[in-house]
TrEMBL record:
<protein>
    <recommendedName>
        <fullName>Tubulin tyrosine ligase</fullName>
    </recommendedName>
</protein>
<dbReference type="InterPro" id="IPR004344">
    <property type="entry name" value="TTL/TTLL_fam"/>
</dbReference>
<feature type="region of interest" description="Disordered">
    <location>
        <begin position="213"/>
        <end position="242"/>
    </location>
</feature>
<dbReference type="Pfam" id="PF03133">
    <property type="entry name" value="TTL"/>
</dbReference>
Length: 520
């Protein structure tokens, strides 16, 4: 809290943002006292210091001429963000201003660089405060479990179990109690790692061995106890569940709890030139308040560099089984192989190889599945997500596709990579970023200014989307999925031009309007 008060000091005011009485109450609540009556200013020892240095010092000496400022940290596509913002008339703050509280828009790689307690009304930030409800492996699983209840999992999400919950561990062990169950293949993922770190492809037998442990070896812990940190080199180093829970089957007197999950592995993926691939698409939550706006953007496919096989001795070969760029980049042939394909090229391959009759139709079918699943994840999370004016998020959804052209959701990523390493990515990323920024601004601004006091006057997403970008152009390849203000919800491309079908809520609104017109 003391550090968060620095902004007023940089404005030339030697006072905290928080009322001093806050500290008296805070310490009194813990039977402690604090007395700073004899305290000295931190500036006493450095009155001669150069005032032009430091984290934002001197910035407010600039004239208040209505200039709008943005901050972007130097990572993951920052130059595209800068180009788009400058084109909109904004001025970039220096990189060292990362702790600055005064800005109009902030675009950072990680939301830990956003000071949510001091997020001011009217500021735009590129991460939703609790995005972990879909962007964390446990978060996405919990959100879908809560949404579907006894009907979990939906047909697009592989059966998944948390290994830090005793009841789910028991369910896994029940499935693995037969010889057939132990031959099944699972993917084991740490909860809080990315870029393929710690991921293992394992048999059911290996999962069972990992979870079971003699009761006398470990001290029993309750179901809600935090699991030990996952260590892929020592997967059994975790805390043990106790039979004393009542929900534990008496056959399992002890087992390990750990901060990871297991998910049924897709053993029949659709292959391209014999190789496994995944599809990265994008979801823009352009606004969460006063009414949410959600859009979909198609992406590209990422190929593994080794031919796919389910041979047991190849389960540990991540070049075969993981399509993450962070993994594949370590392959010696990565720079010599075209591993990023466009969706159109994938359609052409599927048709030319005889896997489908019509490649373009197959891609359309897949894209509609992706849109449906993204929309469903939004519905599952919409009541949980932070609804605060100014927060938006560009998310990356990763899908696998099976032999029957059925899409399977793997995970959702905050801060998706915006690199332009290949011609395919170079054709997608700049318009994606430019349209993201343009759409977010247009749906938050009233008369060219973001003003939380006038947020009820903000244009609805449907009007902005149909109005087009500056100059009437397209919003890249975005498609509108949800506009709560107008009651619009995408309901499939078979509904007519652009899939513009009115949701049940929209139908009800229209019916009320027609009834009112008749009454008049």
């Amino acid at each position: 809290y003391f550090c968060r008060s620095l902004d007023t000091w940089l404005d030339g005011k030697c006072e905290p943002l928080i009322d001093p009485d806050h500290w008296k109450l805070k310490f009194a609540a813990h039977d402690k006292t604090i007395d700073v009556s004899d305290g000295k200013s931190i500036f006493d020892a450095c009155d001669e210091a150069d005032d032009s240095q430091g984290d934002g010092a001197g910035f407010d000496d600039l004239p208040d001429d209505g200039t709008r400022y943005f901050y972007v940290n130097k990572s993951n596509g920052w130059k595209m963000v800068e180009n788009a913002m400058v084109a909109k008339g904004f001025t970039r703050l220096p990189f060292e201003y990362h702790n600055r509280l005064n800005f109009d828009l902030k675009w950072v790689e990680n939301k830990k660089h956003i000071n949510y307690p001091h997020h001011k009304a009217g500021q735009l930030v590129n991460h939703i405060e609790n995005s972990q409800i879909v962007c964390n492996k446990f978060g996405l699983l919990g959100t879908l479990q809560d949404h579907y209840g006894d009907n979990f999992p939906p047909n697009y999400f592989p059966m998944t179990y948390r290994l830090d919950r005793a009841n789910e561990v028991v369910q896994v062990l029940e499935k693995l109690s037969t010889e057939e169950g132990q031959k099944e293949v699972w993917i084991h993922k740490p909860a809080n790692m990315n870029c393929g770190k710690g991921i293992e492809i394992v048999t059911g037998e290996a999962v069972k061995e990992m979870l079971e442990k003699p009761a006398e070896d470990e001290e029993a812990v309750s179901e809600d106890s935090p699991a030990a940190a996952f260590n892929p080199n020592s997967p059994t180093r975790a805390k043990k569940g106790s039979v004393g829970q009542g929900i534990i089957n008496s056959k399992y007197s002890s087992f390990n709890l750990q901060s990871s999950l297991v998910q049924k592995y897709l053993t029949n993926p659709l292959l391209i030139e014999g190789k496994k691939f995944d599809v990265r698409v994008y979801c823009l939550i352009a606004r969460t308040a006063p009414a949410a706006i959600v859009l979909f953007h198609p992406g590209y496919i990422r190929l593994s560099l080794e031919n796919f096989t389910m041979d047991t001795d190849k389960l540990s070969d991540l070049f075969v089984h993981l399509t993450n760029a962070a993994v594949q980049k370590k392959h010696p042939e990565y720079k010599n192989v075209e591993s990023i394909w466009s969706m159109d090229k994938m359609g052409e391959y599927l048709q030319s190889s005889g896997k489908v009759e019509d490649g373009a139709a197959a891609i359309d079918k897949l894209t509609e599945q992706f849109q449906t699943i993204v929309l469903d994840v939004w519905k599952a999370s919409s009541k949980k997500i932070t609804r605060k004016f100014g927060q938006f998020d560009l998310l990356g959804f990763d899908f696998m596709v099976d032999e029957d052209l059925q899409a399977k959701l793997i995970e959702v990523n905050t801060n998706p990579a915006l690199f332009c390493d290949t011609p395919v990515q170079e054709s997608i990323m700049p318009p994606l970023v430019e349209s993201t920024i343009g759409f977010v601004l247009k749906t938050h601004e009233v008369h060219g200014k973001v003003d939380a006091g006038k947020m009820s006057q903000c244009a609805n997403g449907k009007d902005v989307f149909e109005g087009g970008a500056d100059g009437g152009g397209k919003w890249a390849d975005f498609k509108l999925l949800v506009d709560e203000a107008s009651g619009y919800e995408w309901a499939g491309d078979g509904a007519g031009a652009g899939g513009a079908m009115v949701s049940p809520r929209g139908s009800a609104v229209q019916a009320v309007r027609e009834l009112a017109a008749k009454s008049d």
